[in-house]
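Sample 3 of the quickstart, ligand iron/sulfur cluster:
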Amino acid sequence: MADEKQKINLNRVSMPKQEPGVRARNFNEVAQGYTMEMAMEEASRCIQCKKRNCVEGCPVNVQIPDFILALRDGQMWDAARILKGDNALPGICGRVCPQESQCEAVCTLAKKGAPIAIGRLERYVADWERAQNDKPKPEVAPPTGKKVAVVGSGPAGLTAAADLAKMGHQVTLFEALHVAGGVLMYGIPQFRLPKEIVQGEVEYVKSLGVELVLDSVIGKIETVDELLADYDAAFLALGAGAPMFLNLPGENLSGIYSANEFLTRTNLMKAYLFPEYDTPIKVGKKVAVIGAGNVAMDSARCALRQGAEEVYIVYRRSRAEMPARMEELENAEEEGVIFKLLTNPKQFFGDENGWVKSMECYEMELGEPDESGRRRPVKKEGSEFIMEVDTVVSALGTYPNPLVPSTTPDMEISKKGTIVADEENGKTSKPKVWAGGDIVTGAATVISAMGAGKRAAAAIDKYLKDT
Ligand code: SF4
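Result:
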């Protein structure tokens, strides 16, 4: 037993990162990825468990031990093929999936020491494959003659489109913006998920035969009913792109952004490269970001990189309740973002030009747990204080855009504006229509949206074969 223990390397290979002081002022990718030697060393730690906890922990059931074994043995094409068999977007997932709460959380080695760095290995294999010129043509089933419309090209839509195309169906993928990728393009910053990685994986989905139609706002240009006149089935993966607002006095002052606008201008429209790109963004010296999820961390780190001198995360609960990934919290802190916890804004004040100049906040304390299981933040009476700020970003969360729900009257919609769909297979109350991702669950993770896309694709395939 002691011998066996000695054989297992409990320490994972660390991944090089840009130094905090350097990266806080540029948009280059923070984590720089493994070298081949590092990836093989990390892969050799995997003990190839009989009971594959890691596969069960993955929402799209990637055959993790198999691709790791192929990588360890230097069989790189096999590793890429195994990975892509279950996941059309491995370069994206390897970077932004919360592996620490999914596959890596249940890795057998997590109980003994550090789990296998599954996400880093996934990223390595995806990046290796993308760098090759002579990629084999992906395998696609013979044409079925059935047509499927997929609406929305974020993670759920791309995954469903890829799976349906592999099954032999003719897939058209509709995207409202001028570029595919949804939240992967407009939301997640370049330094966490380079846009060329997203577009590389969009190209892979297109290489399966998927037709991509950009600038196509379904619900405006065509309703879902009009689409169904031309398609045998539709999958709605519309995301949750409408911002929630604070509803506080002074919120309409200049310099107060929703995180959606702030991140879209920065990432999709490349405001950080103005005037080379046309869209500017004005970021002041003292920035407060309200919220503590990944979107808040992304906003704070984008503000730093666009010249802010002091950036605060203002959050009404304590550090233990912050919903962002631990890695992103740590990255933000290392870069100099200051966490102002147990603090909530009350109102905003502007200068003579209508630009925000300060924010009145009050202190909070934690009370009894609420329905989410987290301790409820309670206002401390008489604790008001003023923070001087010249930019505020509100990152409180998002809700679904009502356009498709409001133009599809016979589809069941929840009180929150999400589409009601079967958890197992994404079937909606409307015949021939499935839905998945944030439009069903509200804002969630990239990989959970991909899981929903995968399950819906399987259900649509079954329906098309049965009809
Ligand atoms: S659980 Fe961990 S150690 Fe076991 S096969 Fe999966 S990745 Fe390897």
